Amino acid sequence: xxxSVIGAGHVGETVTARVADKHIAEEVVLVDIxxxxxxxxxxxxxxxxxxxxxxTRIIGTNGYDxxxxxxxxxxxxxxxxxxxxxxxxxxxTNKDIVKNVTEQVAAKSPNAILIIVSNPLDVMAYTAYKxxxxxxxxxxxxxxxxxxxxxxxxxxxxxxxxxxxIQAMVLGGHGDSMVPxxxxxxxxxxxxxxxxxxxxxxxxxxxxxxxxxxxxxxLKTGSAYYAPxxxxxxxxxxxxxxxxxxxxxxxxxxxxxxxxxxxxxxPVKIGRTGIEEILEIPLSDEDLxxxxxxxxxxxxxxxxxxx
Length: 307
Ligand code: APR
Prior knowledge:
The protein is of the alpha/beta class.
């Protein structure tokens, strides 16, 4: 398994470290435009290998030759948000970056699976899909796992239970219109509504929707990276282990949920070939409506792309 991570900033370095710690890849190539950053971070991480006990070789570079024939490429290149910005404010800057990166990646690794992390997530996943020309099952975005992790972490705090026992799913676009699904949330198989009244659940949903902004508000100079990095590494692991995990990811839709030619977060089954199946779960009318309006806002941004 060869993995490349494009963008050696906060998210890129975190994905790389997590992938190495999982013992799932022979090699991770870390690429950035800034001379010295991927080389320095890559070497530093490799020097942690004897302590962390991994054999994944980590190579930092400013070019794409070293990425040739990657099985998976994680794209984190781009600018992050600052306080007061929405993810959509990054659209024009990150579109050019993701377009350029995707062209270079696709030329060197025509059979790779692309995992997009740059924001605005669903629109950047669409950009990579169009620019690469890869089939939809090999291009998907990391958002649902992160949003679901935030939701689960808040529920665990509220109930004082292990995060491991919370099963949940957050769908929709990676923004304020995301769609947490309390009806599909259980604690060790017991419905969430057994533990919490509606007002508490609504407050957790609201905090989840604004979870990225809460971190930006604290950091001030950038956005979250520990949870996003861990989420992207979990997707790489699902591909590497081919264990057919069902995870919420931003996927290309061609009619599912009544949505066409767009990316939005839905439950998918992931294996060695990428997305093996998009699951159409029976949503309530209200949740389906929320998913559709979330997809509408993604589509409105896609229309601005001029690809
Ligand atoms: N090619 C390669 N790397 C690039 C390019 C490019 N064309 N343009 C920018 N980069 C690099 C920057 O040099 C920087 O090292 O991308 C990196 C981004 O790192 P950070 O600024 O630390 O941002 P980060 O927090 O990692 O977020 C990256 O992920 O979660 C999203 O919204 C976030 O879009 C942002 C992206």
